[in-house]
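Dear colleague,

Thank you for sharing your sequence with our group. We've completed the structure prediction you requested, and as agreed, I am returning the results in plain text so they can be pasted directly into your records. Please verify that the sequence below matches your submission; if there's any discrepancy, let me know and we will rerun it promptly.
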Amino acid sequence: MNIEQIEKLVQVIEQSSLTEFSYKDGDVKIVMSKLDNPPIVAGGMPMAAPMMPNAAAPLPMAEAETAEDEALFITSPIVGTFYAAPSPDAAAFVKVGDHVKNGQTVCILEAMKLMNEIQSEFDCEIEAVLVSNEQKVEYGQPLFRVKKL
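Please find the predicted structure tokens below.
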């Protein structure tokens, strides 16, 4: 299941009267819940912003689980444009499999012409990059799935 399919599924769940939904495929499990107080995860940010009138629906309040343990996410603290590297011709800050130290820059988010370096708040390993370069991201949107070291 790719991120676009998950986003569509979230929209369907948001518009329904369901309060919880789970999906399992092999060793990957997705659980979505409608909560009054969103959970706090990696980076100290909630998984999804509260709904506001005339605002776009927040992205998944989903927790991806593997057979061994529950995954963590580095989430977006702001609305902006995701950049994986410091410049178009430079290598990405991190890639899948990289070990990241506390305070290490993992990406840049551009908001209102300001470049904001996003840093990991703990030692971890990058398991997945969940957004593409130059993609618009929402507050609380998962950017990276990580495993704490």
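Summary note from our side: Residues 14 and 33 are 9 Å apart (CA to CA).

Kind regards,
the structure core
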